[in-house]
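Reagents: none. Just compute today. Polyketide cyclase/dehydrase/lipid transport protein.
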Amino acid sequence: MRLIKRILVAFLVIILALVGVSYLLPGKAEVSRSITIDAPAAIIFPYVNSMQETEKWSPWLSRDPETKLSYSGPDAGVGNTLNWSSDNPQVGTGSQEIIESTPDQSVKTALDFGPMGTATATFALQSEGAGTQVTWGFVSELGMNPMSRWMGLMMDNWVGGDYERGLENLKALVEG
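Predicted 3D structure written out:
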């Protein structure tokens, strides 16, 4: 009986330590990737300023060709919205709406993953010689949930590769 009590106390101490440490972890998860595309920003911008156009280079849609997509609002710019639904857990269900758009410079979107939370994504276009550096960023506020904070540490590993593939797809589309 004494051994079981010690094991339970040790288990409780470990749990409390993990929860306590979680509040020392970053309160937001950030991911960012960049690529240089051999084209001016004016050629690239339409592909990041329209949810319909992102369908052409998205790194996620190839995971589930049966993903259901619907669009609302204008065809491009602020208010352009994508809703998606997939049974594949790597694609999931959610929505993305363009909330800021500066022609040939930047686009900001609001992401809603339902119970998985919300985030913002950005595209920044910066002239670089004859080409354009495109930076795709992601930020999610993690709140005070200890589990979210621990998971935030892994966000770069989970999303970074997808961002790299997406940017490579965009580069091939624009340059091809």
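The chain has a mean pLDDT of 91.
Action item: order primers for follow-up constructs.
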